[in-house]
Design a protein that fits this description.
With 210 residues, the protein is α/β, with parallel strands linked by helices. It has eight helices and nine strands. The strands form two sheets. The protein has a five-stranded parallel beta sheet, sandwiched between helices. It has a four-stranded mixed beta sheet with strand order 4-3-6-5. It starts with 6 loop residues before the first strand and ends with a helix. The structure holds guanosine-5'-monophosphate.
Length: 210
């Protein structure tokens, strides 16, 4: 079986609980590697540079784009967000299952470059619950909350580009489902073509030798 890890993209409405879901996956199961994104937005209270994000300036971000260091990037509510290429490639090569928690424009860039990537979309049980979580988080101004709600409307239009929906009502259930989907996807026929080719070649060789 091929050893390369699977790349999973996790997107979802702001306030859907993607952050906690991803943290749970990494904490509870071996073999996941979480890519730390770069962003030009200011850290929220409690967020640590290089742990939650690499917090960098707009100029630095644009230099990274020019230098080809971003695997994907997108503008989201007045800021840039992007995935550093090197970490992801190294971890996949080392057999780790890499998780990107990114918005849909970045997800679509990944799907184009790496069609074997698995795309999951996380949603809370209802729109009312989504708004409640965004307000309850208490980290954003009313204006930003409105922009994020608008963005959720945009995102609801592209959910059909994803492979699976994850309903995040109960976090434990959601994390278990995400883990099962990712591990099952690794063995889908479309993602194991190299292995199948290898077996076929071996079969042919054995047949020749007989
Ligand atoms: P937040 O400001 O709430 O941390 O993130 C805002 C949005 O940016 C979320 O939807 C999050 O998934 C997305 N995001 C975070 N990192 C990246 C990234 O590296 N690339 C892209 N395209 N989106 C990202």
């Amino acid at each position: 079986m091929k050893e390369r890890g699977i790349l999973t993209v996790i997107s979802g409405f702001s306030g859907a609980g993607k952050g906690t879901l991803v943290k749970k996956l990494v904490d509870e199961y071996d073999n996941y590697a979480l890519s730390v994104s770069m962003t030009t937005r200011a850290p929220r209270e409690g967020e640590i540079d290089k742990v939650h994000y690499f917090f960098i300036s707009k100029e630095q971000f644009e230099e990274n784009i020019k230098a080809g260091k971003m695997l994907e990037y997108a503008g989201y509510v007045d800021n840039y967000y992007g995935t550093p290429r090197e970490y992801v490639e190294k971890q996949l090569e080392a057999g780790k299952d890499v998780i990107l928690e990114i918005e849909y424009k970045g997800a679509m860039q990944i799907k184009k470059q790496m069609p074997e990537a698995l795309l999951l979309f996380v949603t809370p049980p209802s729109a009312v619950e989504l708004k409640r979580r965004l307000v309850g988080r208490g980290t954003e101004t009313a204006e930003v909350i409105d922009k994020r709600m608008q963005r959720a409307i945009e995102e609801s239009d592209v959910v059909d580009k994803y492979d699976y929906i994850l309903l995040n009502d109960d976090l434990d259930v959601c994390a278990r489902q995400a883990h099962e989907i990712i591990q099952n996807a690794k063995y889908s026929v479309s993602r194991t073509t190299d292995f199948i080719k290898e077996i076929r070649n071996e079969l042919l060789q054995i047949a020749k030798g007989e």
